[in-house]
């Protein structure tokens, strides 16, 4: 039940992230529905691996970081530090996602409380280091990951614990031009297989936010009437400086994760990664599973009946999940 429970937690965390970023409830709800019907998410939700645990921890860390930047409270910084530290324990390659968090902190540096950020960094070191020490105590290796490989159908997996040594990590980090170019060349089709509404997400990403043309005052939630009076609506708990610059954060998250993981000679790369269980898509799950929020944002601008349109798109996702090749599973 671990994978299904992590799937539910991931959906919950995506909803909370959507509430932090977008000023309405419809966009987060639609994003959750689209993620729940995403082919790569469905396939991993019942597979015996740690992919969705990794996704849930990443989304939780991102949520508490967004909350910390808005609320500026110590508890949010502490929780961010705990979940961010757990990412390194689950998979050392998650260091690239830790880098994305600090890019977000740099983007929103004016909202950062310096002393609480130091506390968060200490929590990342202590919690992440403590879990790695647990790995060494129990398994005899700081980096002990389980890899699954099988010639059986994708629903059947065989697990074997393989210590991930420093030597293997350094080998991963060596530049492999052939593998890197192959992954980049196939990335559009691989990502479209993982999330068929990729084009819709790109539309949502590039749609300008309402009010951006009005300058800083409007972007910060302030508006004036015909005679200059303040007619700002009560936005409740929304960040008074306006929405987080989430698009900019996601742009850098997408760039660094795709460029970094394209260098890995991942399981299935020789077949072009055109399977839902390819390890290339597994590495990119945190990046892929934020795409539904942008697709939901694009839907908010369309004039079609919302319920009918969401039903059609969800069914389309499910059909792709059923007919698309699964492939062998590697955890």
Please give a quick description of this structure.
The chain is mainly α. It has helices spanning 2-21, 26-36, 39-45, 51-71, 74-90, 95-107, 114-139, 166-173, 177-194, 198-206, 216-219, 246-261, 279-283, 285-288, 291-299, 306-323; strands spanning 144-148, 159-163.
| End-to-end Cα distance | 16 Å
Q: Kindly state the number of beta strands.
A: 2
Instruction: Name the poorly predicted regions.
Output: 145-162, 211-242
Structural class: mainly alpha
Topology as H/E string?
HHHHHHHEEHHHHHHHHH
- Proportion of helical residues: 55-70%
Mean pLDDT across residues: 77
Cα shape: globular
Number of helix segments?
Answer: 16
Approximate strand percentage = under 5%
Cα-atom radius of gyration: 21 Å
Q: Largest sheet, if any?
A: 2 strands, antiparallel
- The order of strands across the largest sheet is 1-2
């Amino acid at each position: 039940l671990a994978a299904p429970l992590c799937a539910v937690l991931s959906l919950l965390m995506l909803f909370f992230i959507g509430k932090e970023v977008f000023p309405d409830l419809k966009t987060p709800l639609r994003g959750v529905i689209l993620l729940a019907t995403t082919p790569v998410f469905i396939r991993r939700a019942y597979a015996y691996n740690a992919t969705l645990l990794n996704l849930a921890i990443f989304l939780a860390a991102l949520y508490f970081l967004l909350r910390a930047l808005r609320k500026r409270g110590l508890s949010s910084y502490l929780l961010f530090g705990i979940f961010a530290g757990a990412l390194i324990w689950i998979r050392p390659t998650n260091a690239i996602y830790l880098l994305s968090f600090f890019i977000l902190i740099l983007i929103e540096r004016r909202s950062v409380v310096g002393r609480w950020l130091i506390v968060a960094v200490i929590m990342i070191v202590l919690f992440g280091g403590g879990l790695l020490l647990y790995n060494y105590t129990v398994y005899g290796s700081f980096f002990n990951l389980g890899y699954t490989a099988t010639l059986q159908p994708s629903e059947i997996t065989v697990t074997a614990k393989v210590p991930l040594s420093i030597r293997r990590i350094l080998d991963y980090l060596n530049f492999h031009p052939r593998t890197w170019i192959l992954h980049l060349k196939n990335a559009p089709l691989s990502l479209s297989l993982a999330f068929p509404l990729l084009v819709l997400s790109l539309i949502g990403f590039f749609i300008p936010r309402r009010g951006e043309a009005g300058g800083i005052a409007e972007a910060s939630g302030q508006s004036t009437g015909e005679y200059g009076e303040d007619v700002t609506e009560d936005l409740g708990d929304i960040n008074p400086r306006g929405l987080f610059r989430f698009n900019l954060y996601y742009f850098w998250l997408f760039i660094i994760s795709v460029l970094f993981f394209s260098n890995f000679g991942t399981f299935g790369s020789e077949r072009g990664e055109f399977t839902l269980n390819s390890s290339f898509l597994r590495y990119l799950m945190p990046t892929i599973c934020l795409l539904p929020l942008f697709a939901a944002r694009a839907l908010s601008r369309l004039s079609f009946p919302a319920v009918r349109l969401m039903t059609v798109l969800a069914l389309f996702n499910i059909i792709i999940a059923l007919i698309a090749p699964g492939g062998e599973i590697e955890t």
